[in-house]
Amino acid sequence: MRKASLWAWLWLLLGTLYFFVPLFATLQFSLKAKKDQLSLTAYQNVLQSPAFFQSFGFSFRTALITIVVSAFLIVPTAYWVNLKLPRLRPVIEFFTLLPIVVPAVVLVFALIRSYNRTPLTNSRTGTYILLVGAYVILSFPYMYRAVDTGLRSINARTLTEAAQSLGAGWDTILFRVIFPNIYISLLSGAFITFAIVMGEFTIASLLSQPAFGPYMNLISSSKVYEPSALAIISFALTWAAIGLLQFLGRRLPGRVQIVGPR
Amino acid sequence: MAQTIRAETRQIPPEARAAVRLSWTWVGVLPFFAFVAAFLFYPATSIVIQTFFDSARNLTLQNLRDLNQPFITSSYTYTIKLSALTALIGGLLGFLLAYAVTIGRLPGWIRSSLLTFSGVASNFAGIPLAFAFIATLGQLGLVTQWLKSIGIALYPNFSLYSFWGLAITYVYFQIPLMVLIMAPALDGLRAEWREAAENLGANGWQYWRYIGLPIVLPAILGTMALLFGNAFGAHATAFALTGGGSQSSVVTILIGAQLSSDALSNPGLGNALAFGMIVIMTITIGLYSAMRRLAERWLQ
């Protein structure tokens, strides 16, 4: 059996260096808040500031709302396409690829400009609706692909017909047959959406929302060590979300692609 | 009289019944389409259309001509160069890493760790990534200090807030994306093909030249196109590194600025900028889709 060549190990080493040095540097920087000694002062300052909790809570709530709205829109659609409208699949896939063609900046620009003189841009609730709407749109590619993969792997049509032949009504089919089988796929989509919303900056900042992303950016203009602490916290959070997703995803067929805010 | 009524109600033509059934099916997907229409389709097409109108509602190409100002064209060239460079570098390095863990036969646990890490790293982009690189290559950064201690002064010739600084930072989320897409694609390059080629007397270089590369090349090029689009659309990372308003900015920051300084700017200009970006992204994604379909002929 051929073993890995020296080149393979070399590239792995270089890659590891490139990826871990910035993380290590950030960690080390965040521990230097007190002169000449390693301390968690920066973390204390961050975790004790009310602004942190307000913005974190805001993004957290927004993420949950986004996930719920997105699930309510995607699951029936994916199910219907799988079951009754297979011809519609390319159309839906096109629509779920559109958010990649329209980057976040263009999306928020278009939203603000087109809804310019409506209450959607004049009020706090209005802009919040735009925010959630934009986030749901951003989540569509991942949610749809996750749920669709799940439905295809459990052969939704056969399951539905079997349930119907045993006399199940639609509510039984949806809630007791389909949903328990796809909730892992749904969770994987939910985790990605969560990571995206928590880290998002562009849309939140341009809609003047008090989210976690704009808070992090604001901190960087006034503090020196706290931004690094925030970066580590944010990385740990993303790691937790995506790591959990990968762990769950081992039981999933197909791959789940992960791309976030940039 | 009653009998006539009964006969009439029994005579609904079958086509009408089928139409009623069909419309109920479409109701299931209506919420999705309505949502996409309201929050994506309508705004995007509205911008595209508005690009060709001026404030007096007359049809015009002036907005597009306004794009010809030096600071805009230089921004487009800057962004295209940055995106192309990071797509190439990220693509190449990502491919080599993906190669190392698949065909390069590194142990299985390395592969799964790399893929998990890539999943996290491609999501680490934006503000936290900018902070991480400031802590690494900023003026007080770890690597900057280390290089100074061995005699190499990065500053003032190099700046993290310049083209190359942005490029190095962008590559951090480009490589993982390449790895995530190429590793499964390289799995599709079957060992049997290599063995068959060697059986017929081909050496390593000949295998790659005639079999390996032609098969993976569409996947590589397509993913590089995706990487290009990824970098072109990036906003948060560049914003955090350049502070949102310097001379050599990326196009996304220009568009964002159109919203902040609304009172002073020419609204048609913002539309034209957004339109230009949509055009470039459409071409990019079109390239990606075409390449992906080519790649799927051999690599399942």
Protein model, in words:
- The complex is a heterodimer of chains A (262) and B (300).
- Chain A is mainly alpha-helical and 262 residues long.
- Chain A has helices spanning 6-30, 41-48, 50-83, 89-101, 104-114, 119-122, 124-153, 156-165, 170-199, 202-206, 212-220, 226-249.
- In chain A, helix 3 (50-83) runs antiparallel to helix 9, helix 4 packs across helix 7 and helix 9 packs antiparallel against helix 12 (226-249).
- Chain A is globular and about 75 Å long.
- By secondary structure, chain B is an all-alpha fold.
- In chain B, 74% of the residues lie in helices and 0% in strands.
- Chains A and B meet through helix 1, helix 3, helix 4, helix 5 and helix 7 of A and helix 3, helix 5, helix 6, helix 7 and helix 9 of B.
Fraction in beta strands of chain B: under 5%
Helix-strand sequence of chain A: HHHHHHHHHHHH
Counting DSSP H or I runs of 4 or more residues, the number of helices of chain B is: 14
Count of beta strands of chain A: 0
> What's the domain count of chain B?
1
- Look at the helices and sheets of chain A and give the structural class: mainly alpha
Whole-angstrom Rg of chain B = 27 Å
Average pLDDT rating of chain B: 82
CATH class call of chain A: Mainly Alpha
| Quaternary structure type | heterodimer
Number of helices of chain A: 12
The average pLDDT of chain A is 84
Percentage of helical residues of chain B? over 70%
CATH topology (level 3) name of chain A: MetI-like fold
Determine the strand fraction of chain A and express it as a percent band: under 5%
